[in-house]
Amino acid sequence: MEQLAAAPGFWDDTSKAQNSMRELTALRDDVTIWQDVSSRLTDAQELATWEDEEFEAELTRDVKILSKMVAQLEFRAMFADRYDNENAILAIHAGAGGTEAQDWAQMLQRMFVRWANRHGFTVSIVDESPGDSAGIKSCLIELEGEYVYGRLKSERGVHRLVRISPYDSSSRRHTSFAKVEVWPNIQEDIKIEIDPNDLRVDRFRASGAGGQHVQKNETAVRLTHYPSGCVVSCQNQRSLTQNMDTAMKILKAQLFDIERRKQDAAIADLKGEDVDAGWGSQIRSYVLHPYKMVKDHRTKAESGNPTAVLDGDLDKFMEAYLTQNVTDNK
Fold first, then answer.
1. Per-residue model confidence (pLDDT) at position 154
2. What is the pLDDT of residues 118-137, one digit of tens each?
3. For residues 5 and 24, is the Cβ–Cβ distance under 8 A?
4. Contacts with 223 (C-beta within 8 Å, 6 or more apart), sequence order
5. What backbone torsions phi and psi does residue 58 show, to the nearest 5 degrees?
6. What is the secondary structure of 112-142 as a DSSP string?
7. Tens digit of pLDDT for each residue in 192-230?
8. Do residues 131 and 99 make contact, with C-beta atoms less than 8 angstroms apart?
9. Highest mean pLDDT range out of 43-47, 110-114, 270-274?
10. Of 87, 149, 186, 276, which residue is least crowded by CB atoms under 10 Å?
11. H-only helix segments in the chain
12. How many other CB atoms are found less than 10 A from the CB of residue 157?
């Protein structure tokens, strides 16, 4: 790949060249990690043969560093699916329950944004539908970073919240649901043909929550693909053209996912089962009253600190999901 990148005419096709360079960079990173481990192992083995106390402290330090590196490599090895190292598109939909469910959807949005910030990932809210009086009805988020889809695929499904509702004047306990969907944001040029006759394009004015900051021009766009039923909205860009390009990219990613699953049923469903955001279908429960607990119903992973989890501390649950997948596939 390095030889191809140095060949004349490599950059004639800019899009193809950028994809190749992205893959090359990832491969270089992988090779560098293993070369570093190999070099440190050789040095440590040599130190271990020297029966001299002055080298014991250095050897102990090297072993600690190697242990951390091996733990990181074990974690990376869990990302075995083809699209795990792609960026991700994440959607959140409030379930039934009005304001309470819409507030819960916004809490989940904040949770995922904070999780991404912890890891230094790039986050962009592509579209957001504000709630009637609080929260959000739905949102669409793009996330970019190392193995971001491989991590987030553990979050697809229904999330359940149990708490004393701040919107109930009688301070009663409420249960709310929201559905999370995740797709890999394929970096390569997706070969999906969309018949213009199958597509409805609606243009409207972008606005913030509560109708604030309404733009004078119709720059926001909503695409409805009749054959698949996919609907994509985008309003975070400044121009209609930019919003249209982003919306088409996301629509193609969704259609690519649908076609890929049709062609190869053996590959795991990337989007996850389409279930209603309601009772009996939740993958994880967040209980704030009468006790405090977050429990994943698939892996049995738990946390007694829901405040930390809702503040983005999700790695424990993601790692448990990945570990379970590795165990199940052995």
1. 95
2. 999 999 999 999 998 999 99
3. yes
4. 199, 200, 201, 202, 230, 231, 232, 233, 247, 248, 251
5. -65, -40
6. HHHHHHHTT-EEEEEEEEE-SSSSEEEEEEE
7. 788 989 999 999 887 654 444 444 567 889 999 999 999
8. yes
9. 110-114
10. 276
11. 2-5, 14-48, 56-77, 99-118, 148-152, 240-263, 306-310, 315-328
12. 20
Rounded to an integer, the average pLDDT of 165-192 is 84
Beta-ladder partners of 54: none
Please, are residues 102 and 131 in contact by the beta-carbon 8 Å criterion? yes
Q: Which of 246, 225, 224 is nearest to 234 (CA)?
A: 246
Second-level CATH architecture of 87-189+265-328: 2-Layer Sandwich (3.30)
What's the confidence (pLDDT) of residue 153? 94
Which residue has 């190292």 as its token pair?
Answer: 85
Do 300 and 133 meet the contact criterion of CB atoms below 8 Å apart? no
Alpha carbon distance 138, 232 (integer Å): 11
User: Which one-letter amino acid corresponds to residue 100?
Assistant: E
Structure tokens at 269: 């469903």
Give the torsion through C-alpha atoms of 80, 308, 110, 319, to 10 deg: 10
Note whether 45 and 63 are within 8 A (CB): no
The dihedral formed by the CA atoms of 186, 187, 191 and 194, expressed in degrees to the nearest 10? 70
Tokens of 285: 């429960």
Q: What fold, for 196-263?
A: Double Stranded RNA Binding Domain (3.30.160)
**pTM for this prediction:** 0.75
Token pair belonging to 138: 């739905």
- With beta carbons less than 8 A apart as the criterion, state whether 303 and 294 touch: yes
